[in-house]
Amino acid sequence: MKFEPLSIPDVIRITPTVVNDQRGLFMETWRAAQFAQAGIEAGFVQENQSVSRKATLRGLHYQIRRPQGKLVRVVVGKIFDVAVDLRRSSPTFGRWVASTLSAVNRAMLWVPPGFAHGFLVLSETAEMIYKCTDYYAPEHERGIRWDDPELGIDWPMVSGDAPLLSPKDQLAKQFRDAEVYE
């Protein structure tokens, strides 16, 4: 596997080695020792699967207590995946990074605890699977507006249309009003 830190080095794009032959393909998506060698020592406790249609934007989500690290990969379609640093003590506090993940490029994104996470579906549908380092705790779930001007995330809007948002995401707070980590 290839581990590539992004401009916020704690967020890492991972490209697995894919073995193709006449039968199809094989790839490892998780090997604890290899991830630990790359600085990712994650004990996963939950795995989720999400299916979304084109122009759906989910996020920016995080848990203020019981923060989750996430290993995100796409098995159908294509997404623009975003992580925002919410660690006040970090030199990259309030900055964001993004990576395009797809079933074709098979890349994964490691989003460590302390970050908000969101994605925009670029294909007709997208199906993603993500492992989490802590359990979902709805009482600690928080959200930041996807279009917050202070963050300035450059979402590649599909056909220039407004994204499809959940009611919860429509009511998300501005970054300046959000609870963050120390």
Supply the key terms:
single chain; 182 residues; mainly beta; Jelly Rolls; 6-stranded antiparallel β-sheet; 5% helix; 41% strand
What do these coordinates show?
The termini are far apart. The radius of gyration is 16 Å and the shape is globular. It has a six-stranded antiparallel β-sheet, with no helix packed on it. It has helices at 32-37, 167-170, and strands at residues 2-5, 12-15, 18-21, 24-27, 46-53, 57-63, 70-76, 78-85, 96-102, 108-111, 115-121, 125-132, 141-143. The protein has one domain (2-19, 27-177): Jelly Rolls, CATH 2.60.120.10. With 182 residues, it is mainly beta. Strand 1 (2-5) and strand 2 form a beta hairpin. The longest helix has 6 residues, at 32-37.
Topology at a glance:
Blueprint: E1 2-5, E2 12-15, E3 18-21, E4 24-27, H1 32-37, E5 46-53, E6 57-63, E7 70-76, E8 78-85, E9 96-102, E10 108-111, E11 115-121, E12 125-132, E13 141-143, H2 167-170
Tell me the overall shape.
globular
Q: Helical residue percent?
A: under 10%
| Assigned CATH architecture | Sandwich
The CATH class name reads: Mainly Beta
**CA-based gyration radius:** 16 Å
- How many separate helices? 2
The helix-and-strand class reads: mainly beta
**The CATH topology, please?**
Jelly Rolls
Number of domains: 1
Give a count of the beta strands, DSSP E runs of length 2 or more: 13
How is the largest sheet built, in terms of strand order? 1-2-10-7-12-5
Question: Order of helices and strands, N to C?
Answer: EEEEHEEEEEEEEEH
Mean pLDDT: 96
Uncertain segments are none
Q: What is the CA–CA distance across the termini? A: 32 Å
